Design the sequence.
């Protein structure tokens, strides 16, 4: 199980993000800061550390492996996915 500390996600507009792109990259790399970029109040992009992305990807792969272990030959995958959702 992975334990993570919730960090506040900084939100900014696309123009501000464009004007401060290298500062954003520096904050992501040095401070593990995450950014949500919006254009016209619509979320367009999420910028986070590669380490954060790897952790999320690993968590997803772990869930898939657990699901695969639970599946039996000829089992109904739809029912299995419903069970997994209910466990959350």
Sequence:
């Amino acid at each position: 199980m992975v334990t993570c500390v919730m960090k506040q996600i900084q939100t900014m507009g696309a123009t501000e993000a464009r004007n401060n792109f290298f500062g954003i990259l520096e904050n992501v790399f040095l401070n593990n800061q995450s950014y949500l970029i919006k254009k016209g109040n619509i979320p367009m992009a999420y910028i986070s550390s590669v380490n954060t992305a790897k952790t999320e990807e690993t968590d997803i792969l772990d869930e898939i492996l657990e699901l695969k272990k639970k599946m039996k030959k000829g089992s109904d995958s739809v029912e299995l996915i419903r069970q997994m959702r209910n466990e959350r």
